[in-house]
Specification:
The complex is a heterotrimer of chains A (about 80), B (about 170) and C (about 120). With about 170 residues, chain B is mainly α. Chain B contains 6 helices and 3 strands.
């Protein structure tokens, strides 16, 4: 058996490194980039957790999370570049 | 026609998401019926948004070329990642934003090209000029030879990807 | 089964390595665009390998348990999550780069900036 929880702990450490950049990163665009990276890693972590706990629901959550975070990225990007809604 | 294509695509996506739910082939009867109803609703609402007037991607030959294109694409992606890993470790960068004219005609091929060069070595698409279909590309390691002449040659920047995009959707 | 496990460990190793490269790239590079290079390419590639490792394991269990095992749903939905991730990441990077440039972020240490020239014309 693969030890998926160990992989998950490594992913969590990686997420912490990125979240540090969300807090310190100068300016809104850098924070947005770090946030989008964190979203990608969260989707991957959800798939790994699904395998770890053997729950298919987690993967469905991951799909919806990926699409919603994409919409979030697009709208925040539009806000940063100064478009009217 | 647009309505039909949108409905079929929506139904196929629904069937993929509910695979393994029952015994009629792989699906349950309720899922098949609900999926059909939802697909018709989605097709009616989004028929003018999904594909527009351009029906050239229906040609199966283009899909075949797209599948062939995935092999050089994945190879370029692997090289891109090793390149970025090298630059993260050494910190050697020499960036610029350059304008290229890939000589593509329609939006679909431009979308494929922009997404491809974002994931391939050393380049990131920043902006597009819709009137002339020119792309502005952030290039992480500039070759000074290319910067001399103003209508820039795209081959050193993004290889043969514009040709692939033209073959797929041009 | 053991060959499958070895391949899975190799995929997990590659995936974690590139995810860490992307995470450290966010701290190593000087400006938004170069950070986007690291973030987009490396985390997409790393996530592909990690999800493929999951897919390999669940497909292996699917092959053992037979057609109607719940692992079939796991395999196919993981592949769908992978497709969603690949398509949205590249487009999202494009949107973020454009937003950064329009909000006035200068590319650090840039040799040439054609887009800047266009806005000044």
């Amino acid at each position: 058996m693969i030890n998926w929880l160990a992989v998950m702990i490594a992913m969590a450490a990686c997420l912490v490194i990125i979240i540090v950049r969300i807090f310190i990163g100068p300016g809104a665009p850098t924070r947005l980039v770090a946030f989008d990276t964190a979203n990608t890693l969260v989707v991957t972590s959800l798939v790994i957790l699904a395998m770890s706990f053997n729950e298919v629901v987690f993967v469905d959550v991951a799909i919806v999370y990926a699409l919603l975070s994409f919409a979030m990225t697009l709208y925040v990007a539009k806000y940063i570049q100064g478009d009217k809604f | 026609m647009e309505f039909l294509i949108t409905t079929v695509v929506a139904y196929l996506v629904y069937l993929l998401l509910t695979i393994g739910s029952g015994t009629v082939a792989l699906w349950s009867t309720a899922e098949l019926i609900i999926g059909a109803v939802l697909a018709v609703v989605v097709g009616a609402v989004l028929r003018n948004r999904f594909i527009g007037k351009d029906l050239r991607m229906l040609n199966p030959k283009r899909w075949f070329i797209f599948l062939v294109y995935l092999f050089p694409f994945v190879w370029a992606m692997a090289r891109a990642n090793i390149d970025v890993a090298y630059r993260v470790i050494t910190g050697r960068i020499n960036p610029a934003i350059v304008k290229i004219d890939p000589k593509l005609k329609n939006d679909m091929s431009l979308t494929i090209l922009a997404n491809s060069i974002t994931l391939t070595p050393g380049t990131l698409s920043v902006d597009v000029r819709p009137e002339t279909n020119e792309l502005y590309v952030h290039w992480i390691n500039v070759d000074p030879e290319v910067l001399k002449d103003m209508p820039r040659d795209y081959h050193p920047i993004c290889g043969s990807f514009p040709d692939w995009a033209r073959r797929i959707a041009g | 089964m053991t060959a499958l496990n070895v391949a899975t460990y190799v995929f997990i190793g590659i995936g974690l390595f590139f995810n860490y490269v992307g995470a450290f790239g966010l701290h190593r590079f000087p400006d938004v665009y170069t950070r986007l290079h690291a973030a987009t390419k490396c985390t997409t590639f790393g996530s592909i390998f990690l999800i493929l490792a999951v897919v390999m394991q669940s497909a292996g269990m699917w092959a053992v348990e037979g057609t109607h095992s719940p692992q079939s749903i796991m395999t196919i939905h993981s592949l769908l999550a992978l497709v969603a991730l690949m398509v949205t990441n590249a487009t999202g990077a494009h949107a973020m780069a454009r937003a950064a440039h329009r909000s006035g972020e200068k590319p650090a240490r840039a040799v040439v900036d054609d887009l800047e020239k266009k806005e000044n014309d």
